[in-house]
Amino acid sequence: MAILTISASFIFLAIVTLNITEPLPFLKLLFEVISAFGTVGLSMGFTGDISTIGKLIIIFVMFFGKLGPLTLAFSLAQPEIEKIKYPSEDVLTG
Predict the structure, then answer these.
(1) CA–CA separation, 60 vs 40, rounded Å?
(2) Widest distance between CA atoms in the chain
(3) Are 75 and 83 contacting, i.e. CB atoms less than 8 angstroms apart?
(4) Is residue 8 a contact partner of residue 35, using CB atoms and an 8 Å limit?
(5) Helix, strand, or coil here: 56?
């Protein structure tokens, strides 16, 4: 559920940002962002015509989609340092 929430919110943020910076129809931007996040290689053909900021957003969406939100979350998480304690006991033989 967390992966779905992170992915959906990231896609929503990318679409809103592109919608602000680019004067293109919403459905074309939606298709472009979903395609970039899924790294499927499909495009509507207008990627070369968008601004530099739009291209950077698409590049970042592609990179985030390739890594995956779970991998990114694990790489940013701080590992917990645990002290290993071995049990001590007298072993009786015979």
Answers:
(1) 15
(2) 86
(3) no
(4) no
(5) helix
Spatial contact of 66 and 41, defined as CB atoms under 8 Å apart: no
- Cα torsion angle, 20, 63, 44, 11, sign: negative
Kindly tell me if the per-residue pLDDT of 72 is higher than 80: no
User: What is the reported pTM?
Assistant: 0.72
Burial class (CB within 10 angstroms; exposed 0-12, middle 13-18, buried 19+) of 78: exposed
Q: How far apart are CA 39 and CA 1, in angstroms?
A: 21
Question: In terms of residues, how long is the chain?
Answer: 94
Name the pLDDT band for 4 (thresholds 50, 70, 90).
confident
Give how far the C-alpha of residue 53 lies from the chain's centroid of Cα atoms, to the nearest Å.
18
Query: Using an 8 Å Cβ cutoff, are 38 and 65 in contact?
Result: yes
